[in-house]
Write a structure and sequence with these properties.
Blueprint: H1 3-27, H2 31-52, H3 64-71, H4 80-101, H5 109-129
Helix pairs in contact: 1-2, 1-5, 2-3, 2-4, 2-5, 3-4, 4-5
Length: about 140
């Protein structure tokens, strides 16, 4: 499998998790799960984009900073403002991942709505900028 194919598969997997898991967890008022799955969506989408660009990334949950530093060097037309927002979202969700996973914090509805909105934003931006690939629609 090529880097491009692996990257597309990561983004498609993120899409499926967003549609299936994030949406149903929000509907079920399971806000900790919404936060965890939203973090996973963002991580997979960013790693997919990096993979498509041929960038090796560390096995960590927050790669928003690597994405932001890399994207302009590779000629992808994402504004610095959008890249900074993606980096902030990735950092916030990676920092909340562990507390949500171990119920060290009980997340509320507004947290779940924010996490879903942020994950949706990242997915839309990634899909917009890599739209010429075979990436699943409907985020």
């Amino acid at each position: 499998m090529t880097n491009k194919e692996e990257g597309v598969e990561l983004i498609n997997q993120a899409t499926r998790i967003f549609k299936r898991d994030v949406t149903s967890a929000l509907r079920d008022a399971d806000y900790n799960l919404v936060v965890r799955r939203s973090q996973e969506v963002v991580e997979l989408a960013l790693k997919g984009a990096l993979k498509i660009l041929g960038i090796d990334y560390p096995k960590v949950h927050h790669v928003g900073d690597i994405f932001r530093k890399t994207i302009s060097r590779k000629g992808v037309k994402i504004t610095d403002e959008v890249c900074q927002k993606i980096e902030r979202i990735s950092l916030w969700l990676s920092e909340t991942r562990e507390p949500s996973f171990y119920f060290e914090r009980r997340f509320r509805k507004e947290d779940g709505l924010k996490a879903r909105k942020d994950a949706g934003f990242v997915m839309r931006e990634i899909k917009k900028d890599f739209r010429n690939l075979s990436i699943e629609k409907n985020t």
